[in-house]
């Protein structure tokens, strides 16, 4: 076989392996997104029921307010409730329409962390040792690495990760399950959202200290 043919075959094999890695990465991201969507749906149902219990959503639907007849919601009323929530989301999107795609993605990730992951402000306020900033720095550092250096085996060899696979600067006491690097861009989005969370925590702490 000619040398050129062998080189071509090797190049094709490398390209196939590269594409295979890309497909696996996309499959992983799709699986994570499906899980997030399922969790989000559960949370929406929970928030809908909570709104009913607090006598505010039913009042918006039929105008009865807290003195209304609190029987089980019909399917039509539930759909109306979802329409109300959808309208509120659309209004938020409109308010953010002047932002770049990257800015919207960071703000969307911050909202996802709160709504789906459960990282509410009162929980963030407990991290007074700069844990949120440390986690953000982990994602920034990971995004700065090449594809080769991001591989778990290479990261371990180069001393970037501990035995559980988390970065060496990962906060003490934080579960290794919370470390979820994916792509360079996605990691930067997560970092940006965590930075927002840390700034918000600092602002709340300052406001509280100032009385």
Please, could you describe this protein's structure?
- Helix 4 (101-115) packs across helix 9 (184-209) and helix 6 runs antiparallel to helix 9 (184-209).
- The chain is an all-alpha fold and 211 residues long.
- 69% of the residues lie in helices and 0% in strands.
- It has a domain at 121-211.
- It has 9 helices and no strands.
- It is globular, with a radius of gyration of 23 Å.
- Mean pLDDT is 74; it is low at 54-71.
Map the helices and strands.
Blueprint: H1 3-53, H2 57-62, H3 75-95, H4 101-115, H5 121-124, H6 131-143, H7 147-150, H8 152-157, H9 184-209
Round the Cα radius of gyration to an integer and report it: 23 Å
Report the uncertain regions.
Answer: 54-71
What class do helices, strands and sheet pairing give? mainly alpha
Oligomer: single chain
Question: Share of helix among residues?
Answer: 55-70%
> In one word, what is the shape?
globular
**What integer is the average pLDDT?**
74
What summary fits the major beta sheet? Answer: none
Distance between the termini: 81 Å
